[in-house]
Known about the structure:
The chain is mainly alpha-helical. The chain has one domain (about 15-95). It has four helices and two strands. It has helices at about 5-10, 25-35, 45-50, 55-70, and strands spanning about 15-20, 40. It has a two-stranded parallel ribbon. The longest helix is centred in the middle third of the chain and has 18 residues, at about 55-70. The mean pLDDT is about 90.
Amino acid sequence: xxxxxxxxxxxxxxxxxxxxxxxxxxxxxxxxxxxxxxxxxxxxxxxxxxxxxxxxxxxxxxxxxxxxxxxxxxxxxxxxxxxxxxxxxxxxxxxxxxxxx
Length: 101
């Protein structure tokens, strides 16, 4: 893990940072103190636990596309402001398909 003082120089080298949900408070803290060109996305707990590659990759692509429009960090999809309450393990765009249930 990187310290908050070095976050900007490291994270701004990337387009999207897919973060574990345990970093919830840290990500909120550093986004209040800094502006990033990189989307900081807290993964839903179940998605992080299963890490189905195709679903994580799809979310990363969607996060990238939406972040270019909004520039809001930490990034979250509509209706998913509270990351620890999210129950899905599939990509946001597939959330109603329940592919992995």
